[in-house]
């Protein structure tokens, strides 16, 4: 399938420029019928004053909101050669300078802009995509790549042979052919913005059946500042939102904010936004610029939530931005709404009022005084009490520990009570000790907090007797295991799966999208920026180890078979509850070498359970890049919990398999791929699960897991249960 000339003309900058020219000439003809003196003189000599061209465009086109924008549109026409300067100027001037139109025409009789005069506002809209870069300083280098059929069109040949000096100096058309099968349904155009002879921004034209006929250009690569400048210029304000172009602009902004840490620091971003807020534009351009910066910062803050509140330079930047916009409130009263919204954002994220009386005083003042008073009475918020979940590991023997899902403020006596209940030990006979790196054991007092101020354990925790010996001997002692009750057999499998899903969801919903980017970049699990993600990953590993431990600590063959059946059903229920994180962990736990080698146990497992397990194993099949898992997960509706290690693997492969910089330009297409993958978290969290009704027994069975963390112990137990033949 090749493109018709009409289709391509609708996206041709020269054709769009000629459409604006023709509309201007028709308008002059209409005016000449009524005002045949002054207008006809100007029309007959075919010269036009710059200030009148600007005024006409501002009045006639809905997409041109101010004179600065109109100047840039005419500058684009000047660079295209559609408009010519009488005194050979290369920069369009909103003054009494004279300009003339060239009379080059498109060879296509079916040119959309030529045949439909009503399309000229869309032509302006297309030209506005180049307007931010047409300032007489930067040169624009456009590469068009077309199918071989399109290269034969007379229109493109005409375009390539353009003789205008201004066009040849600023626009160069490089005809490249690509295999017809590579882009069967679109022609791809690239615009390269140069400064001082170097590329600083590369844009690509995107063709989509869901957008309006006016195509758009998206970022391919560029310097951080130019990418930010393009995104701000492309951003739609609240009164322009809702259109497909607006949604696409917001998505590109989302890509940038989710991944900017790959190529720049938060401090650099704050400095760049401060510079944009203090730009040199005046009038409406200055108003739009500040409104767009406010909208970007609001989006940034909503996206990062609590991530930004600890950044000192972010707090300083937001206060500076607030004062900067506040100073312009006298000149631009329409900023009041945006400023009030931003004020709420400041209070919610970083600040609080001293007292209610200050607020009451503020309400009695005019709006500019009110905002100023509130800005003065805002103070940094004191650090909030940490409420995130943690997983505490308490060793009960040399080769096993009790995993306790709890809160950071837990005291030693609370932890001892849980250990006593789970391990059938009297609380009075046990103490909690901290083991240092040198092996020294220090007993914690009952009221001592288990976690330090940095929310890390004070050391390796050990539940031991008062003589500081472990409460359990090594688990290879089968006599101890033979007396161990198998509590899981007495609990309904659906309830256990529901309890697992409830706990996993409580961890998963607290994960921020940015944690995946931080985790991929820093490789520092457990840091403040990846705390929730690290806990969920730890939980996934522990569920797998818990399955292995429960099976291998069960001495009775019949009970062991019952445990296999239980875990298979729990995994199936987790999948039905759209919790693939635990489902994956259970299946992998049953597939480990120490468990899968128990032939006698598996042979006694009924056939229907073996068949069910084989079906469940399919979602863990890594072939074709985990195709089975991806298809099954895609069919599930949110809320759902993905298998987090695989999601991190995807992001890591994108990050390490694609260069962050091409010719010193940020590879924005790579960032889009990372952001698209990271947004999976948002999609999965987009709905809330139903109520979980679980008894305390089910909750304790999954909140407190007895885990063997020694691989040698696991294999020894496996061989003791079923020795080699």
Automatic annotation (TrEMBL):
Protein origin, superkingdom: Eukaryota
A cellular component annotation (GO) from this entry: plasma membrane
Domain N-terminal Ras-GEF, first and last residues per copy: 215-347
PROSITE patterns: DEP, RASGEF, RASGEF_CAT, RASGEF_NTER
Signal sequence coordinates: none
UniProt cross-references to InterPro entries, sorted A to Z: DEP_dom, Ras-like_GEF, Ras-like_Gua-exchang_fac_N, Ras_G-nucl-exch_fac_CS, Ras_GEF_dom_sf, RASGEF_cat_dom, RASGEF_cat_dom_sf, Ubiquitin-like_domsf
Residue ranges occupied by any Ras-GEF domain in the UniProt entry: 492-724
DEP domain mapped to chain residues: 46-103
Any one GO molecular-function label of the UniProt entry: guanyl-nucleotide exchange factor activity
UniProt keywords, alphabetically: Guanine-nucleotide releasing factor
GO BP terms in the entry: Ras protein signal transduction
Stated name of the protein: Rap guanine nucleotide exchange factor 5
